[in-house]
Amino acid sequence: MVGVYPSPGQAVPISADASLLALDPLGVLEPAWAQFAAAVSGLGSGPTLPVLSVLGSVAPGELTSLPGFEELLLWRRIRDEATSGQWSAVVVDCSGLGDPFRLLRAPAALSQSLNRLWPRHRRLAAAAERPMLARVSAAVDEMDRDCRDVLDLLSDPHTTAAHVVVDSGLRGERLLPRFAELAALTALPLRSIIANDGATQHPRESFSAVASAVAERLGVDTLTVAAADEPIDRVVRLRRLGVTFDSPNGAPSGTGAARVERVSGSGVDAVYEMRWNQPLADPSRLGLGRAGDDLLVTIGGFRYPVRLPSVLRRCSVIGADWDDDELCIRFTPDPAVWPTRPTA
């Protein structure tokens, strides 16, 4: 689109104050996997954890289907660029993805998988008891830290601003409520909705009503971009559209703004509530589950692990309600793990 040939992995200047960085998934994957494979190969012979004995022989290309792994490495490179101090802003263009929220979900899903398959307390215990596992435990810990680091960056309203661009036709009208509910679920700090009239030959009046309702619900701005008279194949022509992006405003959203409070009782008889603003296009397609320290929220087939605050990790879910775009989940302490005060 910008009239340059990108060099994967290297930032290429395309104007006086903009550069293009194209990331090749396999190119990012190979060096990262080499480090992990080196840690595994250093274990030597003898019984180890299941599957570790064969991991060292797996080729990097075979890992592209491992859920979340490839996406994490892409996010890690983006994070490194964003925190390098070299750029005043980093724009991540997800327009070529069939489902951008799959990319956004990847770090959370991978972190949950790592900690379910090999929980951190077991990793630490294994490394202490068997020094040969220390390198593998450290490698898994680093991967998990990268997951959490990327998630913190994506949900930080002080550094990140998300903008949804949809066509103003029927497709955009159907997608926009879906994007709104998933942005809230993933704590993505949404700042604006941009309607692209140039992507459809028949803008719909009903789209404006849907966009206005979603924008008001989420407290974001809307902008309509008219069809251009010339091909958008140069940066200067792109700038003529007059599109400006709102900066981060520091206001958390969705699960990032979840509130926890004790509403009744005390000790093991207490009841806690966790609430956040959660738009739902179809409330009947909401599902809730629990896996360890994560609350599994499913909306229309999209499942996302929401890390529970420490006070709720020792609790059991006893109910949930959704009303007026607010989701409320109730918890009560699990007597088996709830700390008790020693008696005198």
TrEMBL record:
Domain ArsA HSP20-like: residue ranges: 271-331
Annotated InterPro entries: ArsA/GET3_ATPase-like (IPR025723), ArsA_HSP20-like (IPR040612), HSP20-like_chaperone (IPR008978), P-loop_NTPase (IPR027417)
ArsA/GET3 Anion-transporting ATPase-like domain sequence ranges: 59-167
SUPFAM superfamilies for the chain: P-loop containing nucleoside triphosphate hydrolases
Taxonomy, superkingdom: Bacteria
Family: Belongs to the arsA ATPase family.
Protein name: Putative anion-transporting ATPase
Organism lineage: Bacteria, Bacillati, Actinomycetota, Actinomycetes, Mycobacteriales
